[in-house]
Amino acid sequence: MTVPERPTARAHREVASVLREGDVAIDATAGNGHDTVFLAGLVGPTGKVIAFDVQEQAIASTRERLAAEGLLERVELVHASHAAMHAYAGPASVTAAMFNLGYLPGGDHELITRTEETLQGLEAAVGVLKPGGLLTIVCYPGHAGGDDESAAVVAWAEKHGAEVFRREDTLKPAPFLVVVRATEA
């Protein structure tokens, strides 16, 4: 029996198909640094990752993980909301942006991404993506605030021609992936 692909694994696969050495990428929700390390590996020593998180604990965890991998010099860590990414990346300068919504694993589950701020961050991401760039959003329904945020993200994404990848093999609301591809110029 084939095990269905996890949304985070699919997001990595999608991003790896477009992101190259020397590119600029954004981790909109640094969390524990897994996506940041992944992106830093892809952009190589000549590229740059800008990683955002509103929690100092997440920034510290990401910094530690990057340092352990020898990738810290490739990343700008920003202790701020992803809604401010346009202040850190110019229009059409980013090849890939990743959002992993919900709460910080191992952190306070009361501190979650908020729908309004997420939608502002998604708009900012679309504004900084270059033609042919990619935006991935892993949504987590099933926790307080997660159902509403997930529904709002899907509604927003439908206006941008997004693809939604859901697992149908689960009984409870499962995480799912939304992919937005920036149109070629």
UniProtKB/TrEMBL annotation:
GO biological process, alphabetically ordered: methylation
A Pfam family: rRNA_methylase
InterPro entries: MnmM_MeTrfase (IPR010719), SAM-dependent_MTases_sf (IPR029063)
UniProtKB keywords: Methyltransferase, Transferase
Keyword Ribosomal protein applies: no
A Gene Ontology molecular function term of the record: methyltransferase activity
The UniProt record lists the keyword Zinc: no
Domain of life: Bacteria
Protein name as it appears in the record: Methyltransferase domain-containing protein
Organism: Luteolibacter arcticus
Organismal lineage: Bacteria, Pseudomonadati, Verrucomicrobiota, Verrucomicrobiia, Verrucomicrobiales
